[in-house]
Amino acid sequence: MILLDYRDKRPLYEQVIEKMIQLIAGGGLSPGDKLPSVRSLAMDLSVNPNTIQRAYNALEADGYIYTVTGRGNYVADPDAWKQDHESALEQQLTEAVLQVRRGGLTKEQALLCVEKAFLKEEV
After folding, report:
1. Are 52 and 42 in contact (CB under 8 A)?
2. Is residue 99 part of a domain?
3. Does residue 6 lie within any of the structural domains?
4. In terms of pTM, does the model score above 0.90?
5. Which residue, 46, 42, 44, 74, is CA-closest to 59?
6. What is the number of structural domains in the chain?
7. Which of 7, 33, 61, 123 has the highest Cβ tally under 10 A?
8. Domain range for 34
9. 73 and 91 in a common domain
Protein backbone atom coordinates (compact mmCIF):
# COMPACT_ATOMS: atom_id res chain seq x y z
CA MET A 1 0.00 0.00 0.00
CA ILE A 2 2.56 2.59 1.13
CA LEU A 3 6.33 2.45 0.78
CA LEU A 4 8.49 5.01 2.53
CA ASP A 5 11.87 6.16 1.28
CA TYR A 6 14.16 6.49 4.29
CA ARG A 7 16.76 8.24 2.13
CA ASP A 8 14.24 11.00 1.30
CA LYS A 9 15.03 14.18 3.21
CA ARG A 10 11.36 14.93 3.83
CA PRO A 11 9.83 13.91 7.15
CA LEU A 12 8.13 10.50 7.14
CA TYR A 13 4.70 11.97 7.89
CA GLU A 14 4.94 14.10 4.73
CA GLN A 15 5.73 10.98 2.71
CA VAL A 16 2.71 9.22 4.24
CA ILE A 17 0.52 12.20 3.33
CA GLU A 18 1.81 12.21 -0.25
CA LYS A 19 1.29 8.47 -0.69
CA MET A 20 -2.21 8.57 0.79
CA ILE A 21 -3.19 11.48 -1.48
CA GLN A 22 -1.86 9.53 -4.48
CA LEU A 23 -3.94 6.51 -3.46
CA ILE A 24 -7.07 8.58 -2.91
CA ALA A 25 -6.76 10.82 -5.98
CA GLY A 26 -5.69 7.90 -8.17
CA GLY A 27 -8.68 5.79 -7.20
CA GLY A 28 -6.74 3.22 -5.18
CA LEU A 29 -8.95 4.17 -2.25
CA SER A 30 -12.61 4.97 -2.79
CA PRO A 31 -14.90 7.31 -0.83
CA GLY A 32 -16.04 5.55 2.32
CA ASP A 33 -13.14 3.10 2.43
CA LYS A 34 -11.84 2.55 5.93
CA LEU A 35 -8.17 3.35 6.43
CA PRO A 36 -5.87 1.20 8.54
CA SER A 37 -5.77 2.17 12.20
CA VAL A 38 -2.96 4.45 13.31
CA ARG A 39 -1.27 1.63 15.22
CA SER A 40 -1.72 -0.90 12.44
CA LEU A 41 -0.25 1.35 9.75
CA ALA A 42 2.56 2.44 12.09
CA MET A 43 3.48 -1.21 12.66
CA ASP A 44 3.30 -2.02 8.93
CA LEU A 45 5.59 0.91 8.09
CA SER A 46 7.82 0.49 11.16
CA VAL A 47 7.29 4.08 12.28
CA ASN A 48 6.10 5.76 15.44
CA PRO A 49 2.29 5.94 15.71
CA ASN A 50 2.62 9.71 16.22
CA THR A 51 3.95 9.91 12.63
CA ILE A 52 0.79 8.30 11.27
CA GLN A 53 -1.47 10.35 13.55
CA ARG A 54 0.18 13.54 12.32
CA ALA A 55 -0.36 12.46 8.70
CA TYR A 56 -3.99 11.52 9.34
CA ASN A 57 -4.61 14.86 11.08
CA ALA A 58 -3.21 16.75 8.07
CA LEU A 59 -5.24 14.63 5.63
CA GLU A 60 -8.38 15.30 7.64
CA ALA A 61 -7.64 19.04 7.80
CA ASP A 62 -7.32 19.06 4.00
CA GLY A 63 -10.58 17.14 3.55
CA TYR A 64 -9.15 13.89 2.18
CA ILE A 65 -10.34 11.78 5.09
CA TYR A 66 -12.76 12.05 7.99
CA THR A 67 -12.82 10.46 11.43
CA VAL A 68 -15.70 8.65 13.07
CA THR A 69 -14.98 8.62 16.79
CA GLY A 70 -14.46 5.09 18.03
CA ARG A 71 -14.73 3.63 14.54
CA GLY A 72 -11.71 4.92 12.60
CA ASN A 73 -10.72 7.02 9.62
CA TYR A 74 -12.43 6.92 6.24
CA VAL A 75 -11.82 8.32 2.76
CA ALA A 76 -13.90 11.46 2.20
CA ASP A 77 -16.10 12.26 -0.78
CA PRO A 78 -13.99 13.87 -3.54
CA ASP A 79 -16.14 17.00 -3.43
CA ALA A 80 -14.45 17.79 -0.12
CA TRP A 81 -10.93 17.93 -1.56
CA LYS A 82 -10.90 17.70 -5.35
CA GLN A 83 -11.08 21.43 -6.14
CA ASP A 84 -8.31 22.29 -3.66
CA HIS A 85 -6.19 19.42 -4.95
CA GLU A 86 -6.59 20.51 -8.57
CA SER A 87 -5.83 24.13 -7.66
CA ALA A 88 -2.65 23.06 -5.87
CA LEU A 89 -1.54 20.98 -8.85
CA GLU A 90 -2.27 23.84 -11.24
CA GLN A 91 -0.19 26.16 -9.05
CA GLN A 92 2.72 23.68 -9.05
CA LEU A 93 2.51 23.29 -12.81
CA THR A 94 2.47 27.07 -13.31
CA GLU A 95 5.58 27.42 -11.15
CA ALA A 96 7.31 24.65 -13.10
CA VAL A 97 6.46 26.29 -16.42
CA LEU A 98 7.88 29.59 -15.19
CA GLN A 99 11.13 27.83 -14.22
CA VAL A 100 11.28 26.16 -17.62
CA ARG A 101 10.81 29.51 -19.37
CA ARG A 102 13.51 31.12 -17.21
CA GLY A 103 15.75 28.17 -18.08
CA GLY A 104 15.47 28.95 -21.78
CA LEU A 105 13.48 25.95 -23.01
CA THR A 106 11.04 26.52 -25.83
CA LYS A 107 7.39 25.55 -25.54
CA GLU A 108 8.02 22.58 -27.82
CA GLN A 109 10.96 21.37 -25.72
CA ALA A 110 8.91 21.73 -22.56
CA LEU A 111 6.00 19.78 -24.04
CA LEU A 112 8.38 16.98 -25.02
CA CYS A 113 9.59 16.86 -21.41
CA VAL A 114 5.99 16.65 -20.18
CA GLU A 115 5.23 13.84 -22.62
CA LYS A 116 8.31 11.93 -21.45
CA ALA A 117 7.24 12.39 -17.83
CA PHE A 118 3.77 11.02 -18.57
CA LEU A 119 5.27 8.01 -20.34
CA LYS A 120 7.53 7.28 -17.36
CA GLU A 121 4.52 7.36 -15.03
CA GLU A 122 2.59 4.87 -17.18
CA VAL A 123 5.33 2.25 -17.12
Report:
1. yes
2. yes
3. no
4. no
5. 74
6. 2
7. 33
8. 12-77
9. no
Give Cα separations from 56 to 34, 63, 91, 96, 121 (angstroms). 12, 10, 24, 28, 26
Strands 72-75 and 65-68: antiparallel
Give the model confidence (pLDDT) of 26-53 as tens digits: 899 999 999 999 999 999 999 999 999 9
64 shares its domain with 109: no
Half-sphere exposure of 50 (CA within 13 A, CB side): 1
* 49-107 pLDDT per residue, tens: 999 999 999 999 989 999 999 999 999 998 867 777 788 889 999 999 999 899 999 99
What is the separation of C-alpha 42 from the centre of its chain, rounded to a whole number of angstroms?
A: 18
For residue 33, what are the contacts with CB-CB under 8 A and spacing of at least 6?
74, 75
User: Is 38 within 8 Å of 77 (Cβ atoms)?
Assistant: no
Distance CA 29, CA 113 (A): 30
Domain containing residue 26: CATH number:
1.10.10.10
Asked if residue 52 is part of any domain, the answer here is: yes
* Distance, first Cα to last Cα, the chain: 18
